[in-house]
Recover the amino acids of this structure.
């Protein structure tokens, strides 16, 4: 497959249109009309699908049209993605049942819940599963996971909101805070979490009853989660598909969604996301919501890959939108801030800084060394700055408020 | 005959596969590709159709003579049992 970075500027409007159409068709196991692409254009489309975590869905819609020079490679990848996903889902459900036997009932969000809304659930791939366990029960959960052979670091309740568990071919993110640490408005988040837990209910997936948020709560969660990623490096097309599928599967109280999202300053962004979900993935646009032009959002999503992690440059640009003065100053101060982020930002990626604040300068050094290594591999500080500047403008366009994200 | 629940049938981009999960995946994680006819027989097993009914259905579905359909079904079922894909 072609190198990711080479394709960034090669996503023509035609390829973008065909890609969105193929995603929509593939979700319903339909095919698309022949776009009469050259081999290079096919390669860009299929690589874009890989970057977006949507290859199996797109390939399902286009496999009969893909040139024979490319077809076997992407077919093999697609089959592997689907098989691995089916196996990971099975493992996750087994782990969940084991936890239940020990009296631990985590609340499940995103991953498997979103997959279940797709007719071809294994085609919608997830790299991990996200579960929430209240902090007071978390150590019991942690010990159970370790007994089952999962590897992880010890939970750091002071400065983190999750611990990642790896084992049995899957990755499980165990959260003791349902909302990410980067999102501000902590008091409101805690109240929101309490409400979600009160309204949670059981959903049957392949014979396993799992605890899930009520559908409107989960829609709010998906939109806030998308907003978080949009604020950092980007929201992927798969996230928007998930929102569309969730709305098409469940009855949503859109007034409640708007009122809650409004508390986080995210109505403009959410409207743009829902506009994409409506125009491209057939979701009914909610009554009473105002449409927001989503052209630049789609372009940013296509170029950013899953969660905006398509290139090193783009990842580093997040420090301009996230770590810097961001929307007020995208010049020298933002660059300095991206090189030397504040303590709170550093604690997220370097938890030992929270344990020993005096080590903040050491953290900056480690960060700079890592960045220098990525520059040697081809990352460009100038490109990061350019992307960062563009993305700050994009945040302004979609009114993602400066104080929504902790800096 | 019952399909082993550790194998999930999936039709992927026009091809048919059995994906091992659970204990089966620990032994051999790679998907097993099925022919069109084998996939058809597998789907009948999952529906709980008997061997005899399956052969009769196959006669109609593929327009083959009953003896040939019976032989094809029997042969495939033996292979499924041998490989632990059904019991």
């Amino acid at each position: 497959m072609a190198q990711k970075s080479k394709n960034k500027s090669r996503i023509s409007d035609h390829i973008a249109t065909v890609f969105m159409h193929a995603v929509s068709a593939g979700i319903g196991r339909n095919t698309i009309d022949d776009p009469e692409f050259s081999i290079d254009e096919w390669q860009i489309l299929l690589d874009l699908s890989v970057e977006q975590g949507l290859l199996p869905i797109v390939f399902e819609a286009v496999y009969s049209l893909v040139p024979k020079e490319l077809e076997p490679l992407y077919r093999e990848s697609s089959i592997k993605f689907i098989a691995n996903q089916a196996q990971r889902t099975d493992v996750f459900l087994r782990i969940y049942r084991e936890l239940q036997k020990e009296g631990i009932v985590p609340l499940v969000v995103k991953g498997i819940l979103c997959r279940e809304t797709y007719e071809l659930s294994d085609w919608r791939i997830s790299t991990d599963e996200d579960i929430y366990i209240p902090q007071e029960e978390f150590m019991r959960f942690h010990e159970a996971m370790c007994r089952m052979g999962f590897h992880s670091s010890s939970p750091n309740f002071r400065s983190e909101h999750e611990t990642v568990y790896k084992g049995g071919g899957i990755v499980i993110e165990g959260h003791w805070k349902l909302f990410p640490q980067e999102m501000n408005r902590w008091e409101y988040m805690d109240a929101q979490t309490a409400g979600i837990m009160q309204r949670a209910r059981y959903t049957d997936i392949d014979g396993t009853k799992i605890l899930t948020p009520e559908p409107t709560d989960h829609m709010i969660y998906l939109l806030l989660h998308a907003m978080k990623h949009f604020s950092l490096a980007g929201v992927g097309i798969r996230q928007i598909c998930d929102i569309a599928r969730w709305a098409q599967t469940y009855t949503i109280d859109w007034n409640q969604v708007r009122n809650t999202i409004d508390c986080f300053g995210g109505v403009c962004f959410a409207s743009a996301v829902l506009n994409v979900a409506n125009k491209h993935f057939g979701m009914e646009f909610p009554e009473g919501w105002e449409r927001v032009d989503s052209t630049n959002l789609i372009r940013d999503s296509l170029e950013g890959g899953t969660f905006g992690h398509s290139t090193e440059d783009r990842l580093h640009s997040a420090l301009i939108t996230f770590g810097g003065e961001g929307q007020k100053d995208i010049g020298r101060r933002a660059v300095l801030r991206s090189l030397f982020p504040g303590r709170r930002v550093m604690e997220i990626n370097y938890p030992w800084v929270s344990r020993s604040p005096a080590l903040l300068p050491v953290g900056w050094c480690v960060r700079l060394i890592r960045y220098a290594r990525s520059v040697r591999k081809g990352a460009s500080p100038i490109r990061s700055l350019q992307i960062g500047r563009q993305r700050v403008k994009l945040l302004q366009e979609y009114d993602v408020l400066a104080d929504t994200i902790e800096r | 005959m019952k399909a082993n629940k550790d194998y999930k049938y999936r039709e992927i981009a026009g091809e048919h596969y059995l994906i091992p999960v659970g204990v089966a995946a620990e032994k051999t994680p790679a998907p097993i590709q099925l022919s069109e006819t084998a996939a058809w027989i597998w789907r009948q097993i999952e529906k709980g159709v008997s061997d005899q009914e399956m052969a009769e259905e196959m006669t109609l579905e593929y327009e083959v003579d009953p003896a040939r359909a019976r032989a094809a079904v029997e042969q495939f079922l033996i292979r499924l049992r041998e490989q632990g894909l059904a019991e």
